[in-house]
């Protein structure tokens, strides 16, 4: 029995390593570009967002007086890591689930976009608006180089209609939490562990500062109907020289997930106030804070957007039920584009569950791949043909 095209393509994509950090997107970008050219998409280019970090930009031309529709799917994945019971790059299909690193996040969505672009390219009809299908680099990185480059080069702007087929579990995403990363560094004084009173323990100091940050974030009264409340995670900690040495430095990396009306500035000020309290919490301690990613504030798209209305209609026609409208606790190419341009027509919808992203034994349900490809094709037909 032949395998459905979108499933076979997802498997092929999973088998190409594109880890970030790691080997990057060069190999997969070449595959994506060649597949699109081979399947009738008339204009395809591989364009570096930065050295060695290519985007793929495919274009099916339409009326230039209308804003284009862009399907934007990132090609990179997080590293495979350990703990897998299947080959992370095997693309095994077991009980209706396709396994592999990036299967959900987001090579399934990438494949669905590619097939939708192919379907439109081979429709033998002229387009009333241009369709862009963009495979992006570095979505998993701190600076989201691919999507940022699309904006900087004017390929995507505030008027572009945007759909990012991320792993939303087939829900439509209309708002995103902000994702803000900081490094909080404490400076103490080194001494022998036998005479700790002579030194200032920076690791103990960071522990006190972490407690203070956690309390301050939990005290915030902001609540959003779809995004919930702000959260904070302490993802990385570095410090200490040796077991019997009082540490003079310690740093912790902090992830704050913010909701409207919080801003990068307001969160930075909150953390700086905590850092300034270091001498009160631990005498002799000092602390500093710095942002370590690009600005990624919370964003919301317009409920009246034509993209949303068409996507809702396409979903209903294919699934015979109404789609759910949700918020996303992660950042995507759509949200960074929305932030950088003020674009209110940027939405996220695709196969796979966010709970599968970045996990061992990551998978996407093949039934969702098939449905997502049909819904994306229908959406593009309604907006472009």
Features of this protein?
10 helices, 385 residues, alpha+beta, four-stranded antiparallel β-sheet, six-stranded mixed β-sheet
Distance between the termini: 33 Å
Give a short account of the largest sheet: 6 strands, mixed
Q: Give the C-alpha Rg.
A: 23 Å
**Oligomeric state of the chains present here:** single chain
Shape: elongated
Contiguous helical run count: 10
Strand order of the largest sheet: 1-2-6-3-7-17
Q: Taking all residues together, what is the mean pLDDT?
A: 97
Percent in strands:
15-25%
What order do the helices and strands follow?
HHEEEEEHEHEEEEHEEEHHEEHEHEEH
Q: How many DSSP-defined strands?
A: 18
Characterization of the model:
This protein is an alpha+beta fold and 385 residues long. 33% of the residues lie in helices and 24% in strands. The protein contains 10 helices and 18 strands. The chain has helices spanning 5-14, 26-38, 103-121, 145-152, 202-219, 264-276, 278-281, 306-319, 333-341, 366-384, and strands spanning 43-50, 53-60, 69-74, 93-94, 97-99, 131-136, 161-164, 172-176, 178-187, 191-192, 231-239, 245-246, 249-258, 286-291, 299-300, 325-328, 346-348, 363-365. It has a 6-stranded mixed sheet with strand order 1-2-6-3-7-17, sandwiched between helices. A 4-stranded antiparallel sheet has the order 11-13-9-14, covered by helices on one side. A 3-stranded antiparallel sheet has the order 4-5-18. A hairpin with a 2-residue loop joins strand 4 (93-94) and strand 5 (97-99).
């Amino acid at each position: 029995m032949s395998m459905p095209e979108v499933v076979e393509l997802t498997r092929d994509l999973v088998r190409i390593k594109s880890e970030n950090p790691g080997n990057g997107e060069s190999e997969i970008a070449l595959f994506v570009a060649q597949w699109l050219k081979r399947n009738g998409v008339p204009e395809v280019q591989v364009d570096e967002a930065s050295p060695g970090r290519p985007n793929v930009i495919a274009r099916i031309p339409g009326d230039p007086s209308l804003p284009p529709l862009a399907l934007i799917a990132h090609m990179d994945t997080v590293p495979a890591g350990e703990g897998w019971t299947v080959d992370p790059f095997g693309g095994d299909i077991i009980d209706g689930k396709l396994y592999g690193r990036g299967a959900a996040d987001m090579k399934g969505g990438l494949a669905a976009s590619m097939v939708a672009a192919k379907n439109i390219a081979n429709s033998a009809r002229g387009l009333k608006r241009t369709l862009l299908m963009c495979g992006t680099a570095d979505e998993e990185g701190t600076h989201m180089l691919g999507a940022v480059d699309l904006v900087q080069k004017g390929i995507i702007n505030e008027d572009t209609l945007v759909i990012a087929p991320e792993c939303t579990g087939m829900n439509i995403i209309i708002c995103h939490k902000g994702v803000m990363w900081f490094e909080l560094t404490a400076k103490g004084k080194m001494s022998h562990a036998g005479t700790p009173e002579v030194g200032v323990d920076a690791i103990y100091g960071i522990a006190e500062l972490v407690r203070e940050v956690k309390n301050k974030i939990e005290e915030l009264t902001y609540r959003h109907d779809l995004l919930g409340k702000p959260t904070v995670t302490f993802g990385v900690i570095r410090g200490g020289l040796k077991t019997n040495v009082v540490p003079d430095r310690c740093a912790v990396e902090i992830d704050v997930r913010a909701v409207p009306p919080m801003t990068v500035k307001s969160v930075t000020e909150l953390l700086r106030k905590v850092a300034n309290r270091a001498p009160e919490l631990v005498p002799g301690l000092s602390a500093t804070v710095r942002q370590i990613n690009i600005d990624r504030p919370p964003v919301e798209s317009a409920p009246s957007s034509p993209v949303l209305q068409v996507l809702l209609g396409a979903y209903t026609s294919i699934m015979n039920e109404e789609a759910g409208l949700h918020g996303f606790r992660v950042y995507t190419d759509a949200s960074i584009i929305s932030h950088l341009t003020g674009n209110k027509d940027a939405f996220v919808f695709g196969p796979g569950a966010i709970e599968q992203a970045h996990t061992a034994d990551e998978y996407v349900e093949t039934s969702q791949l098939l449905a997502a490809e049909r819904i994306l094709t229908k959406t593009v037909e309604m907006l472009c043909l």
